[in-house]
Amino acid sequence: MDAERLRALLTDLWDLFERVYNLDESLQGLVDLLGERVGADLVTAYLFHERGRELRLHAARGSVPGDSVPARLPPKEGAVAEAFSRHTTVCDADDVSAGPLPREDLPGFLIVPLQRGRVKLGVLIMQHSTEGFFTADLARGLRSLGSHLASTVDSVTAFTELPEERQPAPAAEQEETEATLVYGRIAAPGTAVGRAVLLDQVWSPDEPETGDAEAPSEESREEAGSRLDAALAASEQQLERLRRDAEERLSEVASVIFTSHLLMLHDEHFSGRMRSCVAEGRSPRRAVIDTVNHYVEVFSSMEEARFGEKVQDVQDLGHRILANLEHRDGEPADYNGQIVIARNIFPSELMMLAAQAVEGVVFLGNGVTAHIAILAQSLGLPVLITGDPAILSVQAGTLLYLDADRGVLHIAPSQEVLGEKHREVAAAEKSAPLQTKCGARVYVMANVNIMRDANTAREHAADGIGLYRSEFPFIIRNDFPSEDEQYQIYRKIVQQMPDREVVLRTADIGGDKLVDGSSPQEQNPFLGVRGIRFSLANRNLFRDQLRAMLRAGHDADLHIMFPMVSSVDEIEMGREEVERCIADLSRESIRHNASPKIGTMVELPSAVEAIGDIAATSDFLSIGSNDLVMYLLAVDRTNEHLSDLYRDYHPAVLKVHKRIVDGIGDRLDHLSVCGDSAASPVMLPFYLGIGIRRFSVAPSRIPGLRHRIGNLTIEDAQRISGEMLGIRSIRDMEEYLELADAGSLTDAAGVATVRRP
Ligand code: PEP
Ligand code: MG
What we know:
Strand order of the largest sheet: 7-14-13-9-10-11-12-8
Number of strands: 22
Number of helices: 26
Structural class: alpha/beta
Strand content: 15-25%
Distance between the termini: 70 Å
Helix content: 40-55%
Bound molecules: phosphoenolpyruvate, magnesium ion
Radius of gyration: 28 Å
């Protein structure tokens, strides 16, 4: 099969799985299409069933009668076991024994695993009477399709593999609170006024658990059924709209969140259960609550992280259906005018809330990840993280004023306090090319996490993209997007910055940036399989990503950067992979960038020690101060109890920066800073003073940074950095900075630090 036909086949297969509402029908469509286009004698799809720990046949197409294909396959022997357990495509040319296959008399075979992260979902098996019939290109194309398919399969089958019913635990009583102020850490600055909505308490029973289950209903069962159907239909329409909006306004990966809600909505186990409850005589409201409670309880009891996430999905979906039941006029169930209070929040949830126009978010501090903060900043959403459980006692509907510039939540604020909200916003200054007061050229680029950042970066005339955190689509989807999916995402990012530098960082998975199934449980994830270590340990995923980047940047000033580098060896191994991908793409005649610049994040102490060699092995370098500070000071960047110890102006941190600059000698033009401290007013004179001229910051911080750069001279900056390097204690440093900055000591995010009184 030539490359053109293969691409056409893959496109059609993708379309087929764009909207899957009936799994077996879609799998049948898949095997039919494959059988027809590839010319396979037999194509089968087997899914793994946890209960029997076996692969069961879901679809088959071939020149043999259907019943001669075994209904079950053991996932423990031969090529099937190899593909299934090792997550790799296997064909008859590989050095494995065939073992049990659907048809033993067809020696040519290609087996594609269906995997989501490392979760095994099934296999797709193609067979042919001729050995060597299936090509390596076909295997590669189908492998990426396999992971896409697996996401869909996973969503659709989530309801079918559950243990028996359990009773939901009674929810805790709500307590009255007298507190009017709650203090917390700023995850993303900004202010908002809105009514409280408590995500975790959506399902607190406001009526007895069995409630009106057996109570005679005033409306007939038929009427109740129609009312439920109308609410389900309205929910479907809203979700379709949200999916489109998310795709256009935020990113295509965000839309996946709504796709999974749609899949749940269409699942017979979910909506069918509600319908059965109504048919038994329960009210539609009760049916929704009971069904959601049931699945919340069941998913909560599952150990795998992916089921934990589904708790949130199910609650949110239930919330929407209830709202639609109660607002028959079609009032949209969004979070406009509301501030969400939650016990915890996932990145995907935050994305979803932003898409649903939420005003702000406050949540309890446990389990906060750096990416929640980064994502919230990208979304322009004020987010506060607090350790104060009093927030969970706030009554739904209470007026709130969230001041995430100062780190405080006002509960039922006075009119006087509300008046503060109308604060002045500094006008963005756009002056390119950017210079200091004395005329030195300085570059300010953007850190991009989602598509919207790239738009904002362009609006603020960024000098390019200094850091694209490519792990975001992985984290948001909690999955590994295929090469083509990644290509689509990276291409859009690259197109936002024609003629400017674009730095695509390979996935920094690990640490607090976890993707389901990405790595085994680790005692110390920050010291574990993270960044380039993850990529080098998962070469197929790494190659998919590099190929997608090289393709997306075919006409761009493409820079590829590796995170968490601790030695030149890792850079060399990464470079070899890039070269291998370039050679493969050339051979396959696929358009790509054949000479990307290869760069390294300087964020580990070992990289600093070896900075001369690291610089000589890299085309460019970027200081990741977020991690560098963490690893130098042994202070977890996500641990709120240590936030007072996490200081980017710590004397040791400053000295390390100076050593980096001294260590790379005349290659200073190739060095930037892309950690949050690049946007800190306190650190700016220091950085300029030691010679750094390239910064990459969150797009929203570009105007402020430009303004400050324009007001500084290099001479002043050199004096300040010299003085700062001479200071020996944190206390002295804080005194110096307070004097220098007229008392407005700021944290790494450039936000005034507010401490609990
Ligand atoms: C950093 O560590 O400073 C950095 C920019 O990378 P991330 O925040 O994504 O770890
Ligand atoms: Mg980092």
